[in-house]
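Take one protein record:
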Amino acid sequence: MAPWGCHRSRRRRRSSRPGRSARALPARAPPTGARRCARESVRGVALSARSSITDERIEHLGGGIDQRAVRELWEDAVAISPWTGPPLWLHGDLHPANILVHEGRVSAVIDFGDVTSGDPATDLSVAWMLLPPSERPRFRAAAGEVDDDTWRRARGWALTLAIAYLASAADDPLMAQIGRRTLAAVLADSG
């Protein structure tokens, strides 16, 4: 599947900020079918729908993570008001291994196998995976109108995805590294 719009124009459009890329996809999804496109419908959903699997993964990681801090932050994330807007198109698997950068600029987003619809916070979670704290406000502004609850849910998505990467990356050093760095960024941002 080719990324949307990749053949729309012969003129090359370059984005200097990942936030612009994050803003490009979230358009209103059709009322039917978007979830059927995804291999799994665990992305774009309310964080509470991920509670059981996230709790299991936190338990599985044991002393390899700060259990108290992670559980406290996860409980806070699940308590945030869920997305009430229309379902938006989502990449569904937006992390550093699926974002190509050339000369300091995003040049492509790859792997659209988890395209789905739902809460835009899912894709916005990449801010904690890819950017230093000083760049996250610029990313948020470039992504468009992102309310405080959506931004807080995005941090919750970064947390649950970091836990998922860590729990399932025994044979994948790159995803383990993304998981460790994301978890550290989320915990550092929780204060």
In short: The chain has one domain: 18-189. The longest helix spans residues 148-167.
